[in-house]
Write a structure and sequence with these properties.
This protein is of the alpha/beta class. The protein has two domains: 232 residues, 3-Layer(aba) Sandwich (Rossmann fold), CATH 3.40.50.300; 69 residues, no CATH class. The protein has eleven helices and twelve strands. A hairpin with a 2-residue loop joins strand 1 and strand 2. The longest helix is centred in the middle third of the chain and has 18 residues. The chain starts with a strand and ends in a 10-residue tail after the last strand.
Length: 319
């Protein structure tokens, strides 16, 4: 699990003069599950879409995204196409983004797989139905012959996952894969993604606003706010010993079994058009001083691989 799969350095993304991401650094090893958590608008989806080159022609991207040692930002469209769907695949938040509603699942699988591999339709069908079984869809023949609108939301999500892993990608990007599902199906999908890592050694970047799902699935967690990563570390360390006020507030906003009432986070996420000097979270942080509003936060290491971007010494305040 020491082999590096993905390395992102100083990644910034902007549209016109609006900075959506700023100075993002992450490293994902083979077989690792990295959870990226934060509120809506924090930049999570932009991060993984930048890896897949799905940002559009008006996006300005700076920094480096290296996959298996190759800088993706330097590739031509044709070179990128060879990697997307083949070595790197993505599960979108809404499974309807995957499928044409008036074409059968079978035709969409055949078209997608044959765009990357010279393989017969019969082989694709057999492998697809095997993948359906792996994902708990035991009525594979019916699903294969169905239109997307004939399947439930949970089934469509599993079919979308099946399509994303058919070519056994080395890196899977999962954008809120459970947000549209009920609790029971959420648990099943989470289990299936973990089994995928165990079976194929796939690295996964899981984007979610649900810090509970991230803590259960992930080896490491990156907490995003205002287009920045404000805390990063091993999952258990981040959850049990948060060092950034925003991380602590995210954790406190989750209902727990002991009956403690979640507190929520006062205020609203920042307007990225009007980011000022200083800490991007200072307007909502109850520990913020004038220094936090005027000076950029610094990286504080609190363990071998655990750091927080904050001017406050957490030991000095009662988190």
């Amino acid at each position: 699990m020491n082999e590096e799969m993905l390395n992102i350095k100083n990644l910034s993304v902007s549209y016109s003069d609006i900075n959506i991401l700023k100075n993002i650094d992450i490293n994902v090893k083979k077989g690792e599950i990295l959870g990226i958590v934060g509120e809506s608008g924090s930049g999570k989806s932009t991060l993984i879409k930048s890896i897949m080159a799905l940002l559009g022609s008006d996006a300005y991207v700076d920094g480096s995204i290296r996959f298996e040692g190759k800088d993706l930002l330097s590739l031509s469209s044709n070179e990128y196409r060879e990697i997307k769907g083949n070595k790197i695949s993505m599960i979108f938040q809404n499974p309807t983004e995957y499928f044409n509603p008036i074409r059968k699942i079978s035709k969409q699988f055949i078209e997608t797989i044959r765009s990357h591999k010279d393989i017969s339709k019969l082989e694709i069908k057999e492998k697809t139905i095997d993948t359906f079984k792996f994902l708990g869809l035991n009525d594979g023949e019916r699903v294969w012959n169905s239109y997307p609108f004939e399947l439930s939301g949970g089934m469509n999500q599993r079919v979308a996952i099946a399509l994303s892993i058919m070519l056994e990608p080395k890196l899977l990007l999962a954008d809120e894969p459970t947000s549209s599902l009920d609790v029971t199906v959420q648990a099943q999908v989470v289990g299936e993604l973990i089994k995928l890592r165990e079976k194929l050694g796939t690295s996964i970047i899981l984007v979610t606003h649900n810090i509970g799902v991230a803590s259960y699935m992930s080896d490491n967690i990156g907490v995003m706010y205002g287009g920045r990563i404000v805390e990063y570390g091993q999952s258990k360390e981040v959850i049990n010993n948060p060092k950034h006020p925003y991380t602590k507030m995210l954790i406190d906003s989750v209902p727990v079994r002991n009956g403690k009432i979640p507190t929520g986070i006062e205020g609203n996420p920042p307007n990225l058009k009007n980011i000022q000097d200083g800490c991007v979270f200072s307007d909502r942080c109850k520990y913020a001083s004038q220094k936090c509003r005027n000076e950029a936060p610094i990286i504080r290491y609190c363990g071998e691989n655990h750091w927080s971007s904050c001017l406050i010494e957490m030991e000095e305040v009662a988190l």
